[in-house]
Amino acid sequence: MYADGRTETSSALLGALANDAAERSSPADRSRAARQPIALLGVAFDNLTLRETVARIEEMIASKLPHYVVTANVDFLAQARRDLELQRILLNAPLVLCDGTPLVWASRLFGNALPERVAGADLVPELIRVAAKKNYRLFFLGTTEEANTQAIAKLRTQFPDLEICYYSPPFRPLLEMDSVEMIRRIRAAKPDLLFVAFGCPKAEKWLAMHHRELGVPVAIGVGATIDFLAGRMKRAPFWMQRGGVEWIYRLCQEPRRLFKRYALDLWYFGGTMLRQWWTLKLGEKRSQTRTSVVQSDRTWQRVEGPACLNKDSLERDADRWKEIAGADRHCLLELPEVKWMDSTGVAVLVHLKKQLRVAGRQLILLSPSTAVRRALITMRLEGFFEVANNALEARAVIEARLPRRSAVLKRASTSPLPWLGGNPIA
Predict the structure, then answer these.
(1) In a domain, 175, yes or no
(2) Same structural domain for residues 297 and 220?
(3) Are residues 259 and 375 in the same domain?
(4) Which of the four pLDDT bands, split at 50, 70 and 90, describes residue 244?
(5) Residues 344, 241: one domain?
């Protein structure tokens, strides 16, 4: 009922254009620091392997702070282009993973290859193994009573001491669900990991609304993964998963439900990805200018961006960007001289905004050039960033929001995310 059948729609054109050489994995710490995120169709993906993802999630658990993780595939991106609420959720997610081989292929077109697909159906079993070893508590939310009990029974044959609870709420539209009861059960169980099987975008919207009040360090929408664990649904053979054609196997399992979705995703993904490639792939790739902090105060910093905001310049100035994100100051980022901006540049701006927002700070783009505006419009992100014509105007925007900052920080750990609209998902 809740299985969402994660789309693995591929494009023959993307497959032909993609570089066949796979990126070699480096040691976890070094590669995580070296690889930059990449934006595909307006969604900024964290550039991680499965192993690095597990390590990142363990860091989140250790922090005890609430996080939600998204495993996004082609269907997520297609829905996010039509659903502004879902797009906002993906942009604000603490961790966005690539759950689609066509997205890995597409990343190679833009010169910043994602190392591998990190599917929810692969990630969850790895996290369960870690949970059994480190005594993390688990909670399954969603799917059916039978699927949950069968999955838990199978898991306990492997991990007898696994601490795991579940709840299968009645199937209802998103805004009619008894969230109070679900939150009560989850808080009583005090899990370290919450797996939500409502399907996309229902799981992601519910988590975005409530993850702060759940008290769970890591919550993930997992689609049909619990049904896979229960043995009620079978995954495609490994060669189909690796080849990017798992969607064909899923289509054969549920043709009536998935045919229209896959057809629309294929049409959308191919056309919009070509548009992004045409807009962002071409341009000057080398820049002699560096990112620099030209002025700073106790609460704000003024940063001058490079002439080319691309993967090469961002890797060259990686330490400087890390300092900017961790400075606990508002950032006024000057971009009038940027002649070219690629998908990596867009993703780094999205990540910078997220990092500053967590600290209660803001990112203001100062006089973005035509190249920057064109890139943001192509990604449909022109409304995501605050823009000002000069530093005085930017500081006025920041000061106008200062009275709200303390209230936001006080509510951040317990308050649900207010519903801003979008479709009430059934």
Answers:
(1) yes
(2) no
(3) no
(4) confident
(5) no
Nearest Cα to Cα of residue 192 among 172, 173, 164, 170: 164
Cβ distance 419 to 209 under 8 Å? Answer: yes
CATH value at residue 394:
3.30.750.24
Q: Which two tokens stand for residue 256?
A: 């009536």
How far is Cα 306 from Cα 128, in angstroms, rounded to an integer?
A: 44
Domain extent for 384: 292-411
Is the same domain home to 165 and 245?
yes
Nearest to 234 by CA among 156, 121, 157: 121
Residues 257, 313 within the same domain: no
End position of a domain, from candidates 275, 301, 322 = 275
In a domain, 4, yes or no: no
Give the pLDDT mean for 46-59.
98
Same-domain check for residues 179 and 298? no
pLDDT at position 12: 35
Q: Please tell me what DSSP assigns to residue 377.
A: H
Residues 208 and 183 in one domain: yes
The answer for residues whose C-beta is within 8 angstroms of residue 105's C-beta and 6 or more apart is 10, 11, 14, 15, 17, 18, 244
Selection from 210, 140, 131 nearest residue 178 by Cα: 210
Residue type, 158: Q
135 domain residue, yes or no: yes
Considering the entire predicted model, what is its pTM?
0.84
List beta partners, residue 237: none
Q: CB of 225 within 8 A of CB of 217?
A: no
Burial of 211 (0-12, 13-18, 19+ CB in 10 A): buried
Tens digits of residue pLDDT in 335-379 = 999 999 999 999 999 999 999 999 999 999 999 999 999 999 999
- Check whether residue 270 and residue 127 sit in a common domain: yes
**In-domain check, residue 6:** no
Q: What would the two tokens of residue 132 be?
A: 């059994």
Cβ-in-10-Å burial (0-12, 13-18, 19+) of 280 comes to buried
Number of domains in the chain: 2
Sign (positive or negative) of CA dihedral 343, 344, 348, 354:
positive
Task: Give residue 38's pLDDT band: very low, low, confident or very high (50, 70, 90).
Answer: very high
pLDDT in tens, 197-242: 999 899 999 999 999 999 999 999 999 999 999 999 877 777 777 7
**Beta-strand pair 218-221/67-72:** parallel
Q: Return the structure tokens found at 351.
A: 């990540």
